[in-house]
Amino acid sequence: MNNTNIIGIIPARYSSQRLNAKVLADIKGMPMIIRVWQNVSKSKYMRQTIIATDEKRIADVCKQFNCPFVMTEPELNSGTERVFSAYNLLKSNHDIIVNIQGDEPLLQAKDIDLLLEQFIKTNFDVGTLITKITTNEEIFNPNNVKVVLDKNNCAMYFSRSAIPFVRDLESTEWHNKNYWKHIGIYAYRKNVLEKFVSLPQSELENYEKLEQLRLLELGYKLYCVATDTKLVGVDTQEDLDLVRSMI
């Protein structure tokens, strides 16, 4: 691990379809994006952690909290493109680039370090986090992305639908089986991220609105590492209220 050069980048945009300006939402006296940065910047392995944004209001908050940031172009289509753009602007050289979601305020440095420790041992293309689903509500919530794993803990498919379909069991009992929720944190090998952003959107990606399917369709391997940390991605006001009650 000490010989691997790793950077963490947190893409942050102001507008959001379901909860506008959510990355600046106050959580116990601190903007959410700053809380995420403070948590993950404690990683043992990431040599640098920065925020990538195109919004002056987010940049101003970064300045207020002495948080390193990079201004990227506003016309970028996704957080992944913003991460790669920021990486290029830094003109640095890293082996692994970690894309960290700015709406995961419960994410901890130990989760990032667990992902990196496990992923670095493999020859797979991308590492990502998953967590066990324990309730039917989580299984059937389309905001929770489900993933099916192969025997090597690599993703076979990601979906907003409830997968797998347990034909011989009532759906009210499906939570007793192995269902996995995907946490959108990605550790990319540099060449894979560079290839990813050069590819057009794929058919399955457009169906599910899940960009990780672009890589799966081309045969790339996404290695999944399970964490026990209770994570709540903030997509709605209800999510934000829940996170505030948990912290």
Question: Quick one: how many beta strands?
Answer: 11
CATH class (first level) name: Alpha Beta
Distance between termini? 31 Å
Radius of gyration: 17 Å
Low-confidence blocks of residues:
none
- Structural class comes to alpha/beta
**Quick check: average pLDDT?**
93
> How large is the share of residues in beta strands?
15-25%
Helix content: 25-40%
Helix segment tally: 9
CATH topology category name:
Spore Coat Polysaccharide Biosynthesis Protein SpsA, Chain A
Q: Architecture, according to CATH?
A: Alpha-Beta Complex
Tally of distinct domains? 1
Describe the structure.
The chain has 247 residues and is of the alpha/beta class. The chain has one domain (6-246): Spore Coat Polysaccharide Biosynthesis Protein SpsA, Chain A (Alpha-Beta Complex), CATH 3.90.550. The chain has nine helices and eleven strands. It has helices at residues 32-40, 56-64, 79-90, 109-119, 136-139, 190-198, 203-208, 212-217, 237-246; strands spanning 6-12, 26-27, 30-31, 46-53, 69-71, 96-99, 126-132, 146-149, 155-159, 180-189, 222-226. The strands form two sheets. Strands 1, 4, 5, 6, 7, 8, 9, 10 and 11 form a nine-stranded mixed β-sheet that branches. A two-stranded antiparallel ribbon has the order 2-3. Helix 2 (56-64) links the parallel strand 4 and strand 5. The mean pLDDT is 93.
